[in-house]
Amino acid sequence: MPELDRRALLAGTVAATTLAALPQAAHSARTGAVQPDLSGKVILVTGTSSGFGRLGAEHYARLGAKVFATMRNLPRPEGDALRQLASDEKLDLTVLPIDVRDEAQVAAGVREAERLAGRALDVLVNNAGIMITGPVEMQDTEALQLLFDTNLFGCQRMARAVLPGMRKAKAGYIVNIASQAGRVIYPGMGAYSASKFAVESWAEQLAYEVATQGVGIGIIEPGGYPTRVMENSNPVSSALKAREPEERKAAYPGLAAQMGQSSSAGQSDPMDVPRAIAALIAMKPQDRPLRTMVSATPSPQEPINAVAAEVQRKMLGGGPFAAAAQMVLGK
Predict the structure, then answer these.
(1) Model confidence over 298-325: pLDDT tens digits?
(2) Which position among 173, 192, 208, 252 bears the catalytic label?
(3) Is 192 a catalytic residue?
(4) Which of 14, 37, 79, 234 is deepest in the core (most CB within 10 A)?
(5) According to DSSP H, which parts of the chain are helical?
(6) Each residue's pLDDT tens digit, 19-29
(7) Residue 134 DSSP label
(8) Using CA atoms, how far apart are residues 152 and 201, in angstroms rounded to an integer?
(9) Could you give all domains of the chain from N- to C-terminal order, each with its CATH number?
(10) Cβ-count burial of 89 within 10 angstroms (0-12 exposed, 13-18 middle, 19+ buried)?
(11) What predicted TM-score, i.e. pTM, was given to this entire model?
């Protein structure tokens, strides 16, 4: 299957609630008709060197929030550029070093953000993530560890760091960037889909467990946007292909040939995702859906979420998590 077809698949996204079905403020935010006021909000975003993270950090700050934009490997040009932007536009935006794979750096970065803010964070946007393509058999342990350490364990490390402060404040919102590939399977996505499926499960379970503590959980499922996530995956995917034996490559000639050749060309506006997140942040906590679709095109995956939500309601509705399930999923 050509790479273009894979991008077409990713052009939709999974959601129990589509962006168009959200309250009007959220729907209008996608088109830019409404700009929510985030003044007074303290927001930390991971993975802000590029993509949704970089665009989001700028957007939330322009809407009045106090933003902590984090990235790994500082100092680096992307960090310098973001600091210059903040200075030029007089934005309340601070760049901090956080590699989500580094437990100590996560803890130190969150402590510093809380110190500078003078209180707990209002919002964590778990955005940092990577992609590695190729057939599953060609995903060696090194590739799997890198994917899960970043995409799943990174979310867990960040949540563990911010939850004590949020719980004490009895308020907070943790937004997790998932993917359409976290609900549906397309061959050639390697273990990326597995890591995003894990994020979906992890985030939903966390939502039930913290709902009565005043903390909300959001899952954003973007479609295919030109954020360079695929281009950024190419060096790692190429390195993986290079260390795999010829016998494995020969078993999957088409999929193996595409490894390291991905591109994310397209006309969709990646600002759709930060706008949707900003609108969700501005909502009353009880009005926020667990899952939100953000896509330039229709998605066939919404029924999966709808069925899953109904199953969860029935399974949890008569037990000790009935109240939490109603808070998370609605009636």
Answers:
(1) 777 789 999 999 999 999 999 999 999 9
(2) 192
(3) yes
(4) 14
(5) 3-9, 24-31, 51-62, 77-89, 103-117, 141-151, 153-169, 192-210, 229-243, 246-251, 253-258, 272-282, 302-316, 322-329
(6) 544 544 444 44
(7) B
(8) 10
(9) 3-329 (3.40.50.720)
(10) exposed
(11) 0.90
